Amino acid sequence: MMLSRTAAALYWLGRYVERADFIARLVEATIRLDALSARPAGEQAWQSALTVTYTEEAFAATGLDLTQDRVARFLTLDEEHPGSIIRCIDMARNNARAVRTALTREAWTAINRAWWVFHNRPTPGNATATLGLVETVKAETRGFEGSIHRMMRNEGAWLIQLGAAIERADNTSRLLDVKYHLLLPAGEQVGGVVDRDQWTTILQTVSAVNAYRWLYRDGLTPANVIDLLITRHELPRSLAACVEEVVQLLNQLAKHTGKQGEADRMARARMAAIQKTRTADVISGGLHEYLGAFIRENALLDSAIARQFRFI
Amino acid sequence: MGSGAYDEIWGHGGPAAPRSEFAALSQWLEDTPGAELQRRQQAAEAAFRQLGITFAVYGDTDAAERIIPFDIVPRIFLPDEWARLSEGLIQRTQAINLFLEDIYGRRRILAEGVIPPELVMLNEQFRPEVDGIRPPHGVFAHICGIDLVRTGPDQFFVLEDNARTPSGVSYMLENREAMIRLCPELFRSFRVAPVDSYPDMLHHTMRSVAPGDTISPVCVVLTPGHFNSAYYEHSFLADSMGIELVEAADLVVDDDVVYMQTIAGRVRVDVIYRRIDDDFLDPVTFRPDSLLGVPGLIAAYRAGNVALINAPGNGIADDKAIYSYMPEIVRFYTGEDAKLPNVETFRCREPGALKYVLDHLSELVVKLVDGSGGYGMLVGPTASKRQIEEFRAALIAEPHRYIAQPTLALSTVPTLADQGLAPRHVDFRPFVLTGSDGVRVVPGGLTRVALKEGSLVVNSSQGGGTKDSFVLVETGPSQTQHQDGMAQSQGADA
């Protein structure tokens, strides 16, 4: 039976790898938004990237200018900033190291390789170089995810995936919530070019641009993007898909350990709720309020998981 | 020192006239371009880095993680050389176990005056806390690493015994994996005994010493944690045995029984291969100021509910002051002369020996009896005047803390250096396992090599590297590999 400490480390390994991947996608999409938008919308693009990652204050405290170079470095390679990609990979590797025996060689080397790639790289460079760096992160995290699917199908793999699913739910909801904060520059129309670019950026961050085209034939509308990201379980990064995955993983763990608990009940209740959710109701009730409640529930579920598997 | 030393491949004849048994290796070294050897060596080191086979150097904050340099040229033992070595290793390990059982039991060897009692009873390595405890099945030193050096074709000496927590076995296994991948042709020229049974042998040894009559004992590896310099090895061993790698915080002792905390509750633990020093095992028994350790572990051990591998208190058997008595110890317990001799050792606590040592400092190697890792050591012939004078003062002040040995002309093995192949000094650590059902030696070990020209210090913390160590198997009639049904058909008449 798995050690509680091992379980905690695997869960957090899953969360940190997912977070590194998300930040990489966010930086990639923001570079695109910045390039497309006329000033000062570009600056606002980086502002919103900070908002999504809850790091506006942390960035302000560095006293740096709000420019692409500064923010991209802050989000990718800043070793002082606990939310940067490099720190996520550090944390992922620390957790992986602590539970080497619960991982396959492939899973470990995937993380370790990513770590060596990042260390001793002082700046992300210009936009092109940053995009190259982002590609590396995405490739390494894909390699890690691939290796997880080749691990034994037991608690180890499920706990990593559970951490990743909880993290992904959190990331998607925060990404969507930022659109609420992201004000259109004066003179821009709702449904205008800038508005459109902002919604496209969101789709890109969750790799859903083509999925959107396949699922919705009536062009880019905010209501459809919200529908896709909240209710469509075909999309792996939608809230519905994450919520279902959490339930499935907890079920598998329960079958293996023979025990269920508070986390299982909370996760099932959340799945029942999201299956009844209609996009029109979310919009009329207030997207921001809906997402705020979702993020809080996700945090409560995270604590319930920690208690159930005796993480501390 | 480099000149005149015995080379294990080239003998005394140099590259032109290698030992006849190793003509094939010498030929291979000649035929393979230096750049190709370099490339393979770098590929091995890159793989080690990716696997995370790194170690931390104490007091070196810059290079927090380094790999131990790997040399691509193997060192080779002939079948009869190995047979003689094994006999000596088994004999010595048996003596070490009997010595420990005696010291923490009736102390016959002291009563009969073979060893001065104060040398044991006043030794810091003697642990009164575990006096009188007989571990499950009477085994104390389950895993011994016996460090050997060689000075000629048949001249092997024991440099020191490691009966506490000898490390390095993961290098033996990983170096072999690298060699098979990078130099497969060598394994066609030589029939090399496999070492990859070591994890199974170790697991078997652990299970054999489980207390009571449990049918499937739970075995674990106890590590200080992933910041420890040998963490890779701890995880590697647990992983290759398929057992849990635990930290002290995962264990709890309740009513003298040890449990680990799992996601489904407590699970009883029977055998612990601990890679934590005695001092940090149990704060109740040893160091109360230590935040590490498992409170109550020694009580559980005393109650006979858990086997600790190796037993606490083993330091008394590998102490450098006791080392000089090993020939007597072997004779006392086995009734035979030691098959593996010691290096001549001067006990500085004896006035006559101290005088000799002080008069010959520039020729001798002086060691702290409780030092390790190449620290606290004087190598006379390469030391500066100041270092020698520092040691002289230290010796006069606290002679009982030191031993001295002659500087040996350690054997060399060809090694890939900047200018090409060159002889470099080596030592050797084989691993000897003792279970309730006997003593076993895995055919191989860790060869450490001093990469600096002329250097005799092989410790990884002092710029040493490692090599694979081949043990050759008796060559019978040459074996062809039949591939019936295993190869793609090449046509009807092929």
Question: Main traits of this protein?
Answer:
heterodimer; A: 312 residues; mainly alpha; 15 helices; B: alpha+beta; Dna Ligase, domain 1; 5-stranded mixed beta sheet; 30% helix; globular; disordered C terminus
Secondary structure: elements and pairs:
The complex is a heterodimer of chains A (312) and B (494).
Chain A (H helix, E strand, L loop, with lengths): L3 H33 L4 H12 L3 H7 L5 H9 L8 H14 L6 H14 L8 H22 L6 H27 L11 H13 L3 H7 L6 H10 L7 H19 L4 H15 L2 H7 L1 H22 L4
Chain B lengths: L22 H9 L2 H18 L2 E2 L10 E2 L2 E8 L1 H25 L4 H4 L5 H5 L21 E10 L2 E8 L6 H14 L1 H6 L8 H11 L10 E4 L8 H11 L2 E3 L4 E4 L2 E6 L2 E4 L2 E4 L22 H6 L4 E3 L5 H4 L1 H4 L2 H9 L11 E2 L3 H9 L4 E5 L8 E3 L5 H13 L4 E5 L5 E6 L2 E10 L1 E5 L2 E4 L4 E5 L13 E8 L23
Parallel strand pairs in B: 3-22, 6-7, 6-11, 11-12
Antiparallel strand pairs in B: 1-2, 4-5, 4-19, 8-9, 9-10, 13-16, 14-15, 14-16, 17-18, 18-21, 19-20, 21-22
Report on the structure:
The complex is a heterodimer of chains A (312) and B (494). Chain A has helices at residues 4-36, 41-52, 56-62, 68-76, 85-98, 105-118, 127-148, 155-181, 193-205, 209-215, 222-231, 239-257, 262-276, 279-285, 287-308. With 312 residues, chain A is mostly helical. Chain A has one domain (4-308). In chain A, helix 1 (4-36) runs antiparallel to helix 2. The longest helix of chain A is centred in the N-terminal third of the chain and has 33 residues, at 4-36. Chain A is globular. With 494 residues, chain B is of the alpha+beta class. Chain B has a domain at 344-407: Dna Ligase, domain 1 (2-Layer Sandwich). Chain B is 30% helix and 22% strand. In chain B, the strands form six sheets. In chain B, strands 3-22-21-18-17 form a five-stranded mixed β-sheet. A four-stranded antiparallel β-sheet of chain B has the order 5-4-19-20. A four-stranded parallel β-sheet of chain B has the order 7-6-11-12, covered by helices on one side.
